[in-house]
Amino acid sequence: MARLYHVPLSPFCRKVRLVLAEKKIEVELVEERYWEQDPDFLRRNPAAKVPVLKIDGKTMAESSAILEWLEEKYPEPALMPKGADARYEVRRLMGWFDDKFHTEVTSKLLYERVNKKITGEGFPDSKNVKAGAKAIKYHLDYMAWLLDHRRWLAGDVMTVADFTAAAHLSALDYISDVDWNRSEVVKDWYAKIKSRPAFRSILADQVPGFPPPRHYNDLDF
Amino acid sequence: MARLYHVPLSPFCRKVRLVLAEKKIEVELVEERYWEQDPDFLRRNPAAKVPVLKIDGKTMAESSAILEWLEEKYPEPALMPKGADARYEVRRLMGWFDDKFHTEVTSKLLYERVNKKITGEGFPDSKNVKAGAKAIKYHLDYMAWLLDHRRWLAGDVMTVADFTAAAHLSALDYISDVDWNRSEVVKDWYAKIKSRPAFRSILADQVPGFPPPRHYNDLDF
Q1: How many structural domains compose chain A?
Q2: Which entry of A98, B28, B42, B45 is 20 to 30 Å from A119 by CA?
Q3: Distinct helix (H) and strand (E) counts, chain B
């Protein structure tokens, strides 16, 4: 069986978990305290990051490279559209969330509030938290603008771009940092993706010391 | 003709320039002071980053998404290998350089020494410069370890992974931050890639206030 070394709230791990589940690939989840730099783990991934996926005799790191590999090796159900232009838009949005959204929002809210405590780096920096809380509004508005024109984020079909965005938002939702009242279309999009069977494992996550809010795993939030 | 909005020393722009040149796609280069957030530029790319490529009636951002699009639309000469496993290794290394190397080295050396001055953010933070100078040694050793087993970084053929790595290293070489004496195989690899016609435009770059060292555009460095 495939094995994923992960951290429950990491958006990069969550996007791999979601895509594995959509493609009905069974996986054993192993929590990895990557910040402790265990030598065995460093052997698996010299970049010392999660996720690390063991599958088909391979050990792989870098979440976006993993998703492209999964799409090529396990093409059903397709989570990438046909056509270079449509595929570009999916990859652009993956970059948007994993780079821009991650820098401006995820690292400023999730990493300040949760990761710093878990890894023993201290208390949240309120300046960062404030900046993240401000930035997420613009990002939700950008998503709303996209979803006003499209059924899914990158076009008319559901793709890995949706799972990438949902991976970040679900982790922030776990700490109540997403204002779902800001946009009806964004809330509808999240409700659709949250109700997929692939989302169940994510909604069952529990991080010691950080109980999720009641709405977190409520499909009717 | 295609047009690229860029900054000369940006590794993300350089990798797009290199791939365009390898594929013999003519491009007009337009320098973009993206940090000034000019409204016209923000309309082209709401992420306010370079590179932005206008080609075939499209306006595109996110360098890795652009490279994948170029490979699909302009497949000759191929800069991605065949086979999911080989392609995974290329994408893993692109992630390695654009994320890990960028965070640990490029942002600590190039951005401290050059970008801060150009964008008016002040002086280099010597703690960051020291950390970057230390980290680049490990990265050069990792490249040496890869190149001991392989002709090119991701395997036996030249790929976008080589151009991604060369984009970062060439920008750091412009400010004399690469110790080419550290590894013979890395130096040989860079000499091979530096002597390609696609590299000429990069070697001709001149940033006002930062004259390149003499060895920078010397093919026999």
Answers
A1: 2
A2: A98
A3: 10, 4
User: Would residue A138 count as lying in a domain?
Assistant: yes
Here the CATH number for the domain that contains residue A64 is 3.40.30.10
Is there a domain that residue B61 lies in?
Answer: yes
pLDDT tens, position by position, B72-115: 999 999 999 999 999 999 999 999 999 999 999 999 999 999 99
Q: Are residues B91 and B187 in the same domain?
A: yes
For B129, phi then psi, to 5°, come to -60, -40
Torsion angle defined by CA atoms of residues A102, A106, A108 and A109, in that order, rounded to the nearest 10 degrees: 170
Does B219 have pLDDT greater than 80?
yes
- Domain membership of residue B184 as a residue range: 84-199
> Please, how many CA atoms are within 13 Å of residue A15, restricted to the half-sphere of its CB?
26
Q: Touching check for B94 and chain A: CB below 8 Å?
A: yes
Considering CB atoms only, which of B62, B73, B96 is closest to A91?
B62
Q: Are residues A114 and A68 in the same domain?
A: no
pTM value?
Answer: 0.95
Instruction: Identify whether A22 is part of a domain.
Output: yes
Distance from CA of B142 to the nearest CA of A (A): 9
CA angle A210, A215, A217 (to 5 degrees): 80
| ipTM computed for the complex | 0.95
Instruction: Quick: pLDDT tens for B30-77.
Output: 999 888 888 888 887 777 889 999 999 999 999 999 999 999 999 999
Contact A95 B64 (CB under 8 A): yes
Residue B91: which of A65, A88, A96 has the nearest Cβ?
Answer: A65
Are A90 and A171 part of one and the same domain?
yes
